[in-house]
TrEMBL record:
Residues in Pyrimidine/purine nucleotide 5'-monophosphate nucleosidase N-terminal domain copies: 4-110
Catalytic reaction(s) noted: AMP + H2O = D-ribose 5-phosphate + adenine
Pfam families: DUF4478, Lysine_decarbox, PpnN_C
Name of the protein: AMP nucleosidase
Amino acid sequence: MDAQIAPEGHLEVLSKAEVARLWDTSHGGLYQLFRSCALAVLNCGSGLDDGKELLERYKSFDISIVQRERGIKLDVKAAPASAFVDGVMIKGIQEHLFAVLRDILFIDGEILKNAHIDLETTEGVTDAVFHILRNANLLQPQISPNLVVCWGGHSISGHEYDYTKIVGYHLGLRAMDICTGCGPGAMKGPMKGATIGHAKQRIENGRYLGVSEPGIIAAEAPNPIVNDLVILPDIEKRLEAFVRMAHAIVVFPGGAGTAEEILYLLGILLHPDNAQMPFPVIFTGPASAADYFKQIDQFILATLGAEAQSKYQIIIDDPVKVAREVQAGIKTVRSYRKQHGDAYYYNWLLKIDREFQHPFAPTHENMRGLALHKNQPAHLLAANLRRAFSGVVAGNVKDQGIRAIEQYGHFEICGDPDIMHAMDILLDSFVKQTRMKLPGKAYIPCYKVIK
């Protein structure tokens, strides 16, 4: 379908010079990035999680900026019909389109081309993430800690999805706001549940934050419940945004992407500088997910050790207990931040090692070269394990990763035999439980574990 849409809020009032800059920039090197992200937003709810297939299915799709005296419009051509109701674009999707435009232009002009932000230093990356989140209006300084980040897979069973809604409902009843990767499955369920909890408590300003990045947005198109969307430039900055904003993290069942998130978080919490910092982390799912979390727990023990296990608790089939534990944990976080003078809205004191910030390109050479051995500190092993799972995610759903697999074959993952054995068991369980791709699609592995 075709449409012309106008922005509301952030991009509604622009000077002539700003409109001209948007026009020039959007028709330059950023256009293809903007087009692919916009298409993913418009494709919300389609059941497609393959970036390459999405771009090929909608080859005729186009989006351009229309200059006007009082601002801009977006001219959309051949967009997915699912983004419209009776010929009118769904308002939430319309807002997401302008959020994508806002973030892509801001990152290019104010972050990547800003001489005052050094992305080669840990402080520079943390500062960049802060500026991107602030520009998107996600940092709210007058709110007491209440933001729960929920992680989990986009490919989960209906029973697991219903469980995420119930957990979200009980969090919403306790006035918790929700932040997820913004896609379907375990990223949508908690938001959906929280809206009911908020409605019952007459909370009219509930926040449902979605955090994405260009490589993953096609596989995890923002669901329309998200009322604040932000696009970070890469997966590492996306993950840092999650942990800097979070007051607690709840992990639902998922696949390789969820394992990547878990390893990223545990690697940070294992850093000696973060040893005393309270950071509530709960793994949870229905009774049918007990074996899933047992496998995750065993993998963590086999690779990172008992200290890593101490950084989280597993709660099975008890949404009320999850919500109560989150609430209690956040009270501890609030007390700690107040005592140490840290902001409630952005965890500046959290130490994030450079190894967790440097963008990892999942090429065949880089995947083969990962240091997957125990002759290193546990938090650095976690960083490398995270990269391995990031490569699997890329080969599964990202356009560039899928094309690399088609051209050069499987990613090869190699390392210590014990670690490879544990990884092979875990990845194989994801395949058997259909957690790698959406149901109905035969999964062809993009990786090979070398024992």
